[in-house]
Amino acid sequence: MTYKFSSTNLATLQTLASAQEWSEFYSKVYEFTSDPDDFDVDADPNVREWFRVASEANANIGPSAALIRDYTAAQVAIRTGDTVSEATLDDASNRIAQSVWSNHISLGDLPTLEDIETWDAVGVVEECLTSAPLGQI
Fold this sequence. Notes:
- Helices cover 68% and strands 0% of the residues.
- Helix 1 (7-18) runs antiparallel to helix 2 (22-32), helix 3 (45-59) packs across helix 4 and helix 4 (62-80) packs across helix 6 (113-130).
- The chain has 6 helices and no strands.
- By secondary structure, it is mainly alpha-helical.
């Protein structure tokens, strides 16, 4: 069964999404999912951890952020020979957050690990590749 956000939690997340405060958005998802939902469903601990790390990566703080950003930059370099700017990495992270919000959380559902795999490991590199003309990434 899918973890469902309460209307109160959704309102908070809506406010953060509207303000594009994505690091805080990720952090609140992590915080809100620490307890079972109103239907006594526990959030997948791996999904919760992804949101914790995503908060750090989006804010570009901590070792997880460095690892994620370095890995992403390496993937773009391998695939295109180009470098990736911090602004492009920031934009990609924000677009992933927007997608998480729009496709699942805004509907009240916590995404599954499979959903996140599609947006994260694959999605961020693709976003970096398509967000700016080659050579200007």
